[in-house]
Predict the 3D structure of the following.
Amino acid sequence: MCDLPSYQYSVIIGLLLSDGWLNFTDKIKSKNAQLGFKQSLKKIEYIWYVFNILSQYCSSLLYVNIGKRNNTITYGVGFITRALPCFTNLHKLFYINKKKIIPTDIYNLLDPIALAHWIQGDGTVKSEGILLCTDLYTIQDVVRLMNVLMIRYNLKCTTHKRKTDQYRIYISRKSMDILKPIVINYFVPSMLYKLPPIC
């Protein structure tokens, strides 16, 4: 349980770039971290797909979470893995002083599988391109991610400032003909709406 198979490892990288998290159940006693991932209930097909890929690391099935946002009841569904050394190793890569960061080796980590799951977890269609929600990351981390998209995948990207110190990455509609063949085989059918048509 110290080393993850390459496919599962790449899926987890994509989850961590989006809404996935790593934490220790007991900050004093826990030796290992666990992985958590949650999405809205309408994305149940995607969550179930990811859960099946990682189910051997879980001790329970999916859970449903009921919350409230802007006076509206919301429903989320997710899973949490067992605490294992493989997740502790990832925690060392993705966290500094309890804050999520982008690893310096992200160029090699962000393979097509990870990219597909990043988009499915945190991407949204905008102006016939894709906007990636990177609000939690510093501008330095956002630029690091954008450089990988531009250099490794030859995608046209820009940053969009949302609020003070919050930046998002926009992949231009002109790059959809390059991006789509790279990631489409790793997409769940119900999530294909996050891939705009090729111009």
Summary: The domain at 6-97 is CATH 3.10.28.10 (Endonuclease I-creI). The mean pLDDT is 93. The chain has seven helices and ten strands. The helical segments are 6-17, 44-54, 85-94, 106-109, 112-122, 139-151, 176-183.
